[in-house]
Amino acid sequence: MHKTFLFILIFFYGTLVFAGQVNFSAPGKDGPIKVLILSGKNNHEWQKTTPVLVRILKDAKLFSVSVTEKPETMSYTDLKKYNLVISNWNTWPDNKQRLGTKWENDFEKYVNEGGGVLSLHAGASSFYDWEAYHRIGIGRWGKDTHHGAPARGRVYGFDQNHPVTKGLSPFYIMDEIWEKTDIYPGSEAIGFLSATDEKDGHPIDVQAVFVGQTGKGRSFFTTLGHDERALLNSGLQTLLLRAAQWCAGREVTIELPAELQKKNAMKDQFQWNQTDTSLTLSNHAEIIWQYNYNNRFGKPYFHPLTVNHSDLTCVSPPDHPWHLGLWFSWKFINGINYWEYLNDFKSPETGFKSEGITEIVSKKIVTNPDFSSVIRMKFNYHQVNGKPVLAEDRNLHVSSPFPDGSYCIDEEHLFRSLTDSVLLDRTPIIGEPGGQTWGGYAGLSMRFNQDYTSPEIITSADTTNCPKCSWMYMGFNNLTGEKAGMAVLPHPMFTTNAASWYVINDPKIPFYYYSPAILFDSKIVLKMGETLILKYRIWMLAGAVTKEKLQEKYEQYLYKMQ
Q: Torsions phi, psi of 510, nearest 5?
């Protein structure tokens, strides 16, 4: 069933928030880059964006991150313990506010002696009567600055001679786009932003990425980064991480995402890589697909799944850490939750653990010379330290890549009850006791890349709101503006009468998810020895597609299975 939801991302991180007292030794040129984020006040939602910044930096595993919500308490002695200060803080609308001569002298001394400063969006819109702060912060909201509603913009024109932007290709982002930003004279622009105003249609083409230097200290500023939606963009994340290294006086080593690297035409060179935890097919250095059967997230999943140099999948996003690219999971088995993680086990720090265990009993992998593969697995489902109640045989066949970069996965799931009665259930739907608007999901599921924009849904019917459609496609514009998408084709002879499409199509977060939810209309009971068989074909598709082409693929699938 097609549904649109707005979920609010809530982040919980063990971030140190302090008021000026720290125990770090003086930073050097080796080891983690010590970062202090200024937060606690902003005319933007710093309560949401600061945790995202912390996560971006920590995930890079190159930074030691601290946060202060009281920047006014920071002295030179405090500041000099950090290689880099990131400002997600401002005094707006108190533009004439000052923190005193000592604070200003301490801050300037920190920068002049080599401290780096990175400001994003409105992070430098403070202290309008203090010229040195404008020079260090580079860009701020000015008397002529204006913006429209957040829009899809193209970030381009990167300086190929600057370490931060060298090798970077253009990318698209959903963000608030500033025009006539008050930029300190003499600052160097190393990136631009173009868009079309959504209100009156006028073209926008502005400088958006800047660097500067004050004494020995390096500065970086970008107008990008209005909200958490923008900060989830991997192009912006790459810019910020590379800028953080550069501002801290380090060599820029953060790799560019495959999508943003300049492409040279090369003959395909596929290769397998099989480990104890995953099977990967790559083309040169780029991963085409990877099936992960480790225990990190408690169940196996495909990630990444790549077309057009673009990863379709999103794994363990902060809003739903149990969303795992392309994966299969039951919601409740005999009342035990196999889908979500326990409250105390849903972060990288604690590990990920559900109430119900999806145990891999065995696996057999065959990789073929044509770069197709077969993966056969057996599973038991049970509580922690409990006896198995449900068994599964899972057969996966991944095709070899086609010349256009597309490929498909055939999935077969055979479930068998091991007890007198197994109840397969889900969150109740509206109309049932305790029904929820988000109820009904379970089974094969897909969570899409959060870089994606312009979602498109195509179904076997004449409408996108089609709970009982034969098949469904979700496609998008990827980070570089190219089309990429996935079609799920359930086999009509191997599904359930309760199945309905469950779709979340929310560009604001973004939250793109869909599933041929096999329990949507009702729960299922399997008696001892009874079986349930499910079969799907999943196409990863490059470029634009049509309903007619998708229907053709569906009919080919059915013919193959006869």
A: -90, 155
CATH code of the domain in which 313 resides = 2.70.98
Question: Residue 235 corresponds to which tokens in the numbers above?
Answer: 């192009």
Distance between CA atoms of 14 and 22, rounded to whole angstroms?
Answer: 16
Coil, strand or helix: which one is 147? strand
Q: Supply the range of the domain harboring residue 126.
A: 15-142+211-256
The number of beta carbons lying within 10 Å of the beta carbon of residue 35 is 26
How many beta carbons lie within 10 A of that of residue 537, not counting itself? Answer: 23
Residue 93: is the preceding peptide bond cis (ω within 30°)? yes
Q: Token pair 């109309």 is at which residue?
A: 431
pTM of whole model > 0.85? yes
User: Is 348 found in the same domain as 249?
Assistant: no
Query: Alpha-carbon torsion 275, 279, 284, 287, what sign?
Result: negative
Q: Looking at the structure, do residues 246 and 298 belong to the same domain, yes or no?
A: no
**Total tally of structural domains belonging to the chain:** 2
Rounded-to-integer distance, Cα 506 and Cα 438, Å: 13
Distances (CA, A) of 406 to 243, 473, 546: 35, 14, 15
Q: Are residues 328 and 241 in the same domain?
A: no
CA distance 49 to 229: 9
Q: Is the dihedral angle over the CA atoms 46, 47, 48, 54 positive or is it negative?
A: positive
pLDDT in tens for each of the 562 residues of the chain? Answer: 334 333 333 333 333 333 332 323 345 567 999 999 999 999 999 999 999 999 999 999 999 999 999 999 999 999 999 999 999 999 989 989 999 999 999 999 999 999 999 999 999 999 999 999 999 999 999 999 999 999 999 999 999 999 999 999 999 999 999 999 999 999 999 999 999 988 888 999 999 999 999 999 999 999 999 999 999 999 999 999 999 999 999 999 999 998 898 777 678 999 999 999 999 999 998 999 999 998 789 999 999 999 988 999 999 998 999 999 999 999 999 999 999 999 998 888 888 999 999 999 999 999 999 999 999 999 999 999 999 999 999 999 999 999 999 999 999 999 999 999 999 999 999 999 999 999 999 999 999 999 999 999 999 998 888 899 999 999 999 999 999 999 999 999 999 989 999 999 998 889 999 999 999 999 999 999 899 999 999 999 999 999 999 999 999 999 875 4
Determine, yes or no, domain membership for 186. Answer: no
Angle made by CA atoms 161, 232, 538, in degrees to the nearest 5 = 105
DSSP 511: E
User: Which residues, 6+ apart, have CB-to-CB distance to 345 below 8 Å?
Assistant: 351, 352, 353
3-state DSSP assignment of residue 58? helix
Same domain flag for 441 and 387: yes
DSSP 254: P
Query: Of the candidates 225, 256, 287, which is a domain's last residue?
Result: 256
Classified as helix, coil or strand, 345 is strand
Phi then psi for 220, rounded to 5 degrees?
Answer: -135, 140
Length of the chain: 562
